[in-house]
Amino acid sequence: MPELPDAERACRLLHARCVGRKITWVQAADDHIVFAGKGRADVEGHLRGRTVVGSGRRGKQFWLALSGGRALLLHFGMTGEVHIRGEATSHYRKIEVGVGDEWPPRYTKLEIRLGKDLAVSYTDPRRLGRIHAIEGDATASPQVAKLGFDPVLDPPEPEAFAQAVQRRRTPVKALLLNQEFSAGVGNWIADEVLFRSRIHPAQQAASLSLAQTSALLDQLKYVCTKAVEVDAESARFPKDWLFHYRWAKGKRAAPVLPDGRQIAFVTVGGRTSAYVPDVQILSVAPKVAADDSEPVDKASETDEAPARPRTRKRRR
User: Fold this and answer.
1) First to last CA, the chain
2) DSSP per-residue string spanning 237-271
3) C-alpha distances in angstroms, 54 versus 71, 89, 130?
4) 123 touches 108 (CB < 8 A)
5) Cα 51 from chain centroid?
6) Is residue 304's pLDDT more than 90?
7) Residue 293 pLDDT > 50, yes or no?
8) Closest by Cα among 170, 160, 6 to 77
9) Residue 143 confidence class, pLDDT cut points 50, 70, 90
10) Known catalytic residue: 229?
11) Is 109 a catalytic residue?
12) What domains are there in the chain, each with its CATH number?
């Protein structure tokens, strides 16, 4: 699933190709889900004739700033992608449904043309991504304003991070996936960070020591920054990353690291988590379910923070 590095790659690509150019033609699909309730005419009118004046990203949200105080805010969901006509598109992992080589690609939700020679397409086979036509600054929009720190743009200081982690009574994996805590962290990044920090995904955040929170922050910054440096190209990720070996769940042979250590799976916070039992030991065992669900890349992705459970007052 696209995570922070993929959003950064797309944002950089759009910035390089689009900034300073005028949108001369727009075609939006009639899809109220992807366009978050907006009709195609509204979206097309929002964009047509506007000049791209800048870009930005926070977490998995990225945007183009437009003339007239408008913005186009994009989120990939599980299978979203940005394409430039005539240029190859790369993924960290192939999606199950290919979009083809024709133009516009299959599953195109939005196509814009900037001048005579530049065409951009946003595709989303599963319709879990979102496109928002924003009036005003994208950073003030609810989708962006609610996000937590970005591990690449503004990582917290170690002391502040430790305090934020240690006051949470939730599994650390669920905390990392909470976009209001750490924006841009998805399933594979969280698993990679926890593996490299030697922390079990079900470990209660409040139980972590200062040494563990320090390692967690260091690895969070390292993994995200390194993935961004290599333009989200998975073949260029370091060979010792768990990422390369975690996808074998459900196959006949149990997945292992090159040194023979076994990779196991557990469900934490409703998400499949890959971990290495030899180095990620659960010191206090909260209730977690052995994982017999679908592989992680078949699970639905959400950026919403976990809902706070309702409590009922007992009548006297």
Assistant:
1) 49
2) S-TT-GGGTGGGTTSSSPPB-TTSPBPEEEEETTE
3) 9, 22, 20
4) yes
5) 27
6) no
7) no
8) 6
9) very high
10) no
11) no
12) 4-145 (3.20.190.10), 158-298 (1.10.8.50)
Structure token pair of residue 79: 């299978």
Q: Specify whether the CB–CB gap between 133 and 140 falls below 8 A.
A: no
Contact 205, 165 (CB under 8 A): yes
Q: Of the listed 3, 8, 81, 192, which one is catalytic? A: 3
For residue 80, the model assigns a pLDDT of 95
The DSSP 8-state label assigned to residue 75 in this structure reads E
DSSP H stretches of helix in the chain: 4-18, 40-47, 142-145, 158-166, 172-177, 187-197, 210-229
- CA of residue 131 relative to chain centroid, distance: 15
pLDDT of residue 1: 76
Adjacent-strand bridge partners of 81: 123
CA angle 186, 191, 194 (to 5 degrees): 120
**Given 8, 60, 125, 171, the catalytic residue:** 60
Token pair for residue 213? Answer: 């929170």
pLDDT at 89 (0 to 100):
73
60 included as an active-site residue: yes
* Cis ω for the linkage preceding 258 (within 30 of 0): no
Task: Give percent above pLDDT 70 in the chain.
Answer: 85
Residue with tokens 């459900």: 250
Strand order in the sheet with 264-268: 271-275, 264-268, 289-290
* Residue given tokens 């010792």 in the structure block: 240
Binning pLDDT at 50, 70 and 90, where does residue 188 land?
A: very high
- Beta strand 130-135 with 70-75 is antiparallel
Residue with tokens 């979206």: 43
